[in-house]
């Protein structure tokens, strides 16, 4: 039973409630039934909340924005006959080669392990710094471990007269695709 307070400023405590068996039950504690009831509702609400978050996440899918595989490479007159232009190697990983009768784009990726070869103008060849593969000016492999020639890319002329290079379409020498339309431009 509760003792009366000796301090006149503190109100006396309420008498303890009795449970079904007549035993005193403290006023400040929850019963086991109350605890599990609240825990069950808390679990249900947490599940409902997380499910709602997952559902809302489906409404905003993750999208990977990649740059366009096509780019404009200037006019044909910008390129010198018999030269390899390294202007686009850093940004697009592409060489533009202009010969007497044609212009084509070569992907600057070694066919051995994908390193970026260097154009050695004095030697007239592409040389891979990783494992020493060598390629002629038109992309044919002649030394080192590279198993096949370099890949050519689709080229065309835009309505404004500029060269358009499409890196999504490659032409392979071993399949005889270097003579197909789109693999070069007639100059």
From TrEMBL:
<dbReference type="Pfam" id="PF00355">
    <property type="entry name" value="Rieske"/>
</dbReference>
<dbReference type="InterPro" id="IPR005805">
    <property type="entry name" value="Rieske_Fe-S_prot_C"/>
</dbReference>
<dbReference type="InterPro" id="IPR017941">
    <property type="entry name" value="Rieske_2Fe-2S"/>
</dbReference>
<keyword id="KW-0479">Metal-binding</keyword>
<keyword id="KW-0408">Iron</keyword>
<dbReference type="GO" id="GO:0016020">
    <property type="term" value="C:membrane"/>
</dbReference>
<protein>
    <submittedName>
        <fullName>Putative Ubiquinol-cytochrome c reductase, Rieske 2Fe-2S iron sulfur subunit</fullName>
        <ecNumber>1.10.9.1</ecNumber>
    </submittedName>
</protein>
<feature type="region of interest" description="Disordered">
    <location>
        <begin position="1"/>
        <end position="26"/>
    </location>
</feature>
<keyword id="KW-0472">Membrane</keyword>
<feature type="domain" description="Rieske">
    <location>
        <begin position="71"/>
        <end position="164"/>
    </location>
</feature>
<dbReference type="GO" id="GO:0016491">
    <property type="term" value="F:oxidoreductase activity"/>
</dbReference>
<dbReference type="GO" id="GO:0046872">
    <property type="term" value="F:metal ion binding"/>
</dbReference>
<keyword id="KW-1133">Transmembrane helix</keyword>
<dbReference type="InterPro" id="IPR036922">
    <property type="entry name" value="Rieske_2Fe-2S_sf"/>
</dbReference>
<keyword id="KW-0812">Transmembrane</keyword>
<keyword id="KW-1015">Disulfide bond</keyword>
<dbReference type="InterPro" id="IPR014349">
    <property type="entry name" value="Rieske_Fe-S_prot"/>
</dbReference>
<feature type="transmembrane region" description="Helical">
    <location>
        <begin position="38"/>
        <end position="60"/>
    </location>
</feature>
<keyword id="KW-0411">Iron-sulfur</keyword>
<keyword id="KW-0560">Oxidoreductase</keyword>
<keyword id="KW-0001">2Fe-2S</keyword>
<dbReference type="GO" id="GO:0051537">
    <property type="term" value="F:2 iron, 2 sulfur cluster binding"/>
</dbReference>
<feature type="compositionally biased region" description="Basic and acidic residues">
    <location>
        <begin position="16"/>
        <end position="26"/>
    </location>
</feature>
């Amino acid at each position: 039973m509760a003792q009366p307070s000796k301090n006149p400023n503190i109100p006396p405590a309420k008498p303890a409630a009795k449970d079904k068996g007549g035993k005193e039950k403290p006023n400040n504690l929850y019963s086991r039934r109350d605890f599990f009831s609240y825990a069950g509702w808390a679990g249900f609400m947490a599940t409902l909340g997380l499910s709602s978050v997952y559902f809302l996440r489906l409404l905003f899918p993750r999208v990977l924005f990649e740059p366009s595989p096509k780019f404009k490479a200037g006019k044909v007159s910008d390129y010198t006959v018999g030269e390899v232009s390294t202007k686009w190697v850093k940004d697009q990983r592409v060489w533009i080669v202009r010969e007497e009768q044609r212009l084509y784009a070569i992907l600057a990726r070694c066919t051995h392990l994908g390193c970026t070869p260097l154009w050695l103008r004095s030697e007239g060849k592409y040389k891979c710094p990783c494992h020493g593969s060598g390629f002629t000016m038109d992309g044919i492999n002649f030394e080192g471990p590279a198993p096949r020639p370099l890949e050519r890319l689709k080229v065309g002329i835009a309505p404004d007269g500029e060269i358009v290079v499409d890196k999504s379409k490659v032409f392979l020498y071993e399949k005889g695709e270097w003579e197909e339309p789109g693999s070069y431009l007639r100059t």
